[in-house]
Amino acid sequence: MSQIRESELQVIRSFHTSQLIRNKYENILENLDSGIILFDSDGVLAFVNVQMAKLLGVPRKSLTGCTLTQLLRHPQLSRFKKKKIVRIYRETVFHKRRFHEIVDEFGRSWLITMTYGDQMEGDFLISVKDVSDFKRIEQSAYQNDKLAMLGKISASIAHEIRNPLTSIRGFIQLLRPHLVSLGKDEYARIILTEIDRANDIIYEFLNSSKPSAPETKIVSVSSLLKEVVLLTESEALMKGCQIDLHTDDTLPAYISVDVKQIKQVILNIIKNALDAIFEQHDEDITGMIHISAKDNGKHISICIADNGKGMDQNTLNHLFNPFFTTKESGTGLGLSVSYSIIRNHGGSIAVDSQVGAGTEFVITFPKLDLPNDE
Ligand SMILES: Nc1ncnc2c1ncn2[C@@H]1O[C@H](COP(=O)(O)OP(=O)(O)O)[C@@H](O)[C@H]1O
Ligand SMILES: [Mg+2]
After folding, report:
1. Mapping DSSP to helix (H, G, I), strand (E, B) and coil, where does residue 255 land?
2. Do 345 and 360 form a contact (C-beta atoms < 8 A)?
3. What does the pLDDT look like over 293-322, one tens digit per residue?
4. Which among 56, 76, 222, 365 has the fewest CB atoms less than 10 Å away?
5. How many Å lie between the centroid of ligand 1 and the Cα of residue 159?
6. pLDDT tens digits for 33-62?
């Protein structure tokens, strides 16, 4: 008798324990930071967790018991999400794809995983995970690899080009008296200046793409910007574009940088802005480049904004890649070199752009604390 009771009690106990475990797992699933949704073998939504309801932007209660068609007709589901769901559905059914990646309206990346088949006994599990941080890290690792490779290639190319240039320069100088006697001294002069220009370009490029630590000097941000703007004013004038430099002189901000390299970065960005304004074929818009510097306590940021043609998502994705250019005679090196210079300075570079409206680059440097700011 007591033995029967004992076994009954055991059944009750084990039922109780399994119930507790079940509740625990349900709790975990419900509050997981990934979104989870389960359709049963009849295609009816059997489970949806808090995060998934949040991602869909639909109250959780109104989802359970829905079919996919009913979900797609849900009045609170946005058109953007409906379109994405239909696309993922098609790719899963017709192409048997189990992993999907989407980018949402706010630029975040999501990995969507489909689990079905034997182990699911006819059920269909969909999980959605935010992989934006992972994507960012992956992208910057890829970027660093390419920049390291670019550094090596450019160093060897530069060596190979420099040597023949030096011998050409020497021979032209030897030929110069003969050219003078023919009245063609002008030719020699042009060849020599062009060779010097090519040498300068190689030197500048090598200097900036070298991974070595920058030769730093303490400079005031506003004087640095003034000097760079002076260098670009004539080109801007030629392109009918205004450059508006706005620095707060009452707030002296200093940074410790390799002046030559940082000037090159700012020049690259301004030149790109001038090109973008030139390519924006709207006669009614006056080309404007606003340059400003801000001090937010710990950092100094330099902002360069233009009202040029702007960039589409594809250009934005590849912007800092070596050799990426949308211009016929572009090199695609300006921004990749700028990126590595800023990284070598412990700074960062961010960009925001809209097609047809313009682009804004923000370079941020760690601020230097000078004991006696003047
Ligand atoms: N201010 C800008 N407005 C629009 N597009 C830009 C801007 N700056 C850069 N870009 C885009 O980024 C690409 C890469 O720039 P960059 O590395 O300087 O190379 P390049 O100027 O030789 O093309 C450009 O070809 C252009 O498409
Ligand atoms: Mg450029």
Report:
1. strand
2. no
3. 988 888 899 999 999 999 999 999 999 988
4. 76
5. 27
6. 899 999 998 999 999 999 999 999 999 999
